[in-house]
Amino acid sequence: MKVNGETSNRVQYDIQNSNLNPDEHNSTAIIAYITFIGWIIALVKNKEEKNAFASFHIRQMLGICCVGLVVVILAFIPKFGIFINFFGMLIVIVLWVLGLISAVNGERKKVLVLGEFFQEWFKGIS
To answer: At a CB cut-off of 8 Å and minimum separation 6, what does 122 contact?
Structure first.
């Protein structure tokens, strides 16, 4: 589907090359956003049946988890750590919600600012 001369951001599934239906690819992407355990389950499930859509969201969630880890580490800075933790976790939650909504809608939207970096840094995860 084209919108204003550009290809739509919706995921196009290649059913011929996959034993899974599109809903199962969506569920793998959604599972990636449900805690770190869900991310591991999605990673293992995607190793069995490779899917670019699921891999995209697995990389996005790994990046969001890394940002959360950095925020937790920075929280130990005396005096400023509590502010860094509060605002940092608020940002992590916003990124997580945006990524989850994108997966539920079947879209490949990169999370704000860092999404492009996540795809580049974690391109080995496919």
So the answer is: 59, 62, 63
Kindly report whether the global pTM for this prediction surpasses the value 0.85. Answer: no
Mean pLDDT, contiguous 10-residue spans, the chain (126 residues): 44 41 72 88 87 89 92 90 92 93 89 85 79
Range list of H helices, the chain = 22-32, 35-48, 52-74, 81-104, 115-121
Residue written as token pair 């989850």: 100
Q: Is residue 64 part of a domain?
A: yes
Note whether 23 and 13 are within 8 A (CB): no
Position 99 in a domain = yes
Range of the domain at 9: 2-121
The domain tally of the chain equals 1
- DSSP letters, 18-42, are -SS-HHHHHHHHHHHTSHHHHHHHH
d(CA 78, CA 104): 39
Is 15 inside a domain boundary?
Answer: yes
